[in-house]
Write a structure and sequence with these properties.
Two copies of one chain form a homodimer. Chain A has 21 helices and eight strands. Chain A is of the alpha+beta class. Chain A has two domains: 300 residues, 2-methylcitrate dehydratase PrpD (Orthogonal Bundle); 116 residues, 60s Ribosomal Protein L30, Chain: A. The relative contact order of chain A is 0.13.
Chain lengths: 439, 439
């Protein structure tokens, strides 16, 4: 009965039932998602996808976000959903390493545009879609993920179908069948990580979930108990599932509120060191710096010990480059990880001043940094919780700045400020056209 | 290295390397597939799919087989692949319960039509696509199937990608990555059986596999070791896999040659009884029959003991109806399982003469039938291997007749004979247009 009960919970939960902090968090998530999507919308991965989908269909129902073209809705969610995960810079539910917005937000944008849906409905659909996929992820994590499934895709199909179901106004039976048809399309192997297929996963999950809902809306039938059935999702896709987690504390505890944003475009393990270097800029100019010593857990250096990175991707795995550029630029956004930037002589020179030191007693998410100047002065910074952690979440201002860093190659200041303003008042808009016409 | 080796085997195998019986069998499989597809192309399940895909795309690259409309290739393979499995009357690799043509043939037809591909290339692609998916099925069956996966879809994605890869002339690296991108999209839960989602599976497998190949052909990247990798298909999708089965006796033993065709549109368990009743028509007219006693294994009656079926679907689970109509019509095709037919008074009256009797010592695939006439005569028939079993395969004539039974609602005699003639000379055609213009 879990699938049916979950559907009942979803259908009875209105936007008014949701706490204000959740609604605000959801709008930040949408803004963050839109930024990472627009940021990668001209990436090679996106270009290949668009070449293929444009050959398939010439419909113009939904915008490819940040491009002057539209596509059919199934192609649009595939392309936008993929773009959002290319930089690996999207949101993360830290308990399950699930990136919740990826499979859900593209559906909200595509259906919202095609059917001119009230943004209040869209926001409710977005929040409930993310909540459903995260609760399902909770029920199969960690066995499911450890076994090799990319949980953002495999559980994401349920989020996409839930959001689409709310927007297309499915009844209880239809919604259960839509989860059935989405669930049977669950997929995604971690073996493909490191290739273009990784970002393809949330896009395809969005597409599979949306297709499920479109079909059921038109009379297609499927199982109404896909989660709990003997040959259903929980039993087949996980060796150890805890089905009770799916409905637990519904309405009191919101999993989607545990969603975190990355301030920096590299692995989370370097974020405390970046915070420290940015904090240290208060005490010295680059020319005054003799060295910056960073005491970190050995694990940090294991993952990021690359001394002479040549490509942007290698830069993400170099504490030397990352800390140097963070001090010089006050940021470590996608811009800082361009190949060109990594080969900048000024930054390469500064990298020699970065001196990591390991200490087993240091927590993995902590760093102690000491800056020494040529004139013999010392300045210390201790970072206990990096920006973007649940204990120290990104501020609205930081999220806005991240959006601008990602989009300024394409949008002017006015456009970016308008988008931010409208995204943060999403439920008050007349339609999402107000946002789309800015990008 | 299995993925790479499999690709190497595939790429080096030409049509000339294949034994003649395999090539003939492949053409029968294509004909059988085309019949079941055209037969269900106006079914409600197909209509819903087409309503949704037509709203998505207006491209006209590939024919919806048996309809006067075309679609884009991704939609066409979804629709045609689904239609082929609606009657559950398609081919079956009995060792793995995999229906091989379903995910592969639609790709062959769609790409063949769009790109005007030489039918020789198409036939090679079809055979190798089926061979690859069946060998992968062998390597994970039975654990994978018992665990809940619909193997026709979950392994079928590989068959679709292989066929598409040959048609689009991928090189070794691309073909391996195409299997990677297809394999990460493996899906299909048996929980959805009994709904429209079951036939959706081979259609969606065709679509996922084709999309993978189209993307890789245009530069998309993926894993080149999707089968054997730690987080790859064999480890994640099966608790017990035998990877050595994938390459075993390549070129000497053809799994696709072990593919069987169903002569009757119901569960295989009733096929011996149908054979027996048709054989008995030689000895008496319906009016002369007092009763037909059928001795079967108890399992047969357990599955098909429904005494008064009302719908066509229920008729498939009634030995009484099925044997009555088989005697009266000399057939048990999809036509015999229409709701109207099941409620025909003449047949209902004859059902009372069907007397099943169980015997634990009877083999499950055997039947002993005794016809008694009102005049006191007795006639006996023993069926040891039903028509369509590997020991007693359907003849070319029977396959042709099955095609006609399925298509005569739509095509005239001339058209049907032309299609059969051309399908059985597939590799000699100039293009598949020769077939398409007949339907």
């Amino acid at each position: 009965m879990i699938t049916k009960q979950l559907v009942q919970h979803v259908l009875k939960t209105s936007l008014e039932d949701m706490p204000e902090d959740l609604v605000t968090h959801a709008k930040k998530s949408l803004l963050n998602w839109l930024g990472v999507t627009i940021g990668a919308i001209h990436h090679e991965t996106t270009n290949i996808l668009l070449k293929v989908t444009n050959d398939i269909s010439s419909a113009s129902h939904a915008t490819i976000l940040g491009r002057k073209e539209k596509s059919d809705i199934l192609s649009a969610v595939l392309v936008n959903g993929t773009a959002s995960h290319i930089f690996d810079f999207d949101d993360t539910h830290l308990d399950t390493i699930h990136h919740p917005s990826g499979p859900v937000a593209p559906v909200v944008f595509a259906l919202g545009e095609k059917h001119q849906v009230d943004p209040k409905v869209l926001l409710r659909a977005f929040i409930l879609g993310c909540e459903v996929e995260l609760r399902i992820s909770n029920s199969v994590y960690p066995a499911h993920y450890q076994n090799g499934f990319h949980i953002t895709a495999s559980a994401g199909v349920f989020g996409a179908a839930t959001a689409a179901g709310i927007i297309l106004d499915l009844n209880e039976e239809e919604m259960a069948m839509s989860l059935g048809l989405a669930g049977t399309q669950s997929f995604g192997l971690r073996e493909t990580f490191g290739t273009m297929t990784k970002p393809f996963h949330p896009g395809k999950a969005a597409q599979n979930g949306l297709l499920a809902t479109l079909l059921v809306k038109n009379g297609f039938t499927s199982s109404e108990q896909i989660l709990e059935a003997k040959s259903g999702f929980l039993n087949v896709y996980s060796t150890k599932s805890k089905s009770e987690k799916i409905l637990k504390d519904w309405g009191d505890v919101w999993e989607f509120n545990k969603n975190a944003f990355k301030p920096y475009a590299c692995g989370i393990v370097l974020h405390p060191s970046i915070d420290a270097c940015i904090a240290l800029t208060e005490y010295a100019t680059p020319l005054e710096v003799a060295e910056i010593e960073l005491t970190v857990h050995p694990y940090v250096l294991e993952l990021t010990g690359k001394e002479n990175p040549i490509t942007g991707l290698e830069g993400k795995f170099s504490i030397y480059y990352t800390c140097a550029v963070a001090f010089l630029d006050n940021d470590a956004s996608e811009y800082q990880y361009q190949d060109e930037k990594v080969n900048n002589q000024e930054i390469i020179a500064f990298q020699k001043k970065i001196k990591p030191k390991t200490d087993e007693n240091m927590a993995k998410d902590k760093v102690f940094a000491v800056l020494q100047t040529y004139s013999g002065k010392k300045h210390e910074v201790l970072i206990e919780h990096a920006t973007g952690s649940l204990e120290n979440p990104m501020t609205q201002k930081q999220i806005n700045q991240k959006f601008k860093n990602l989009c300024n190659y394409l949008l002017d200041k006015n456009q970016m400020n308008n988008v931010i303003e409208k995204m943060m008042h999403f439920e008050e808009l007349d339609s999402i056209e107000e946002i789309l016409k800015q990008i």
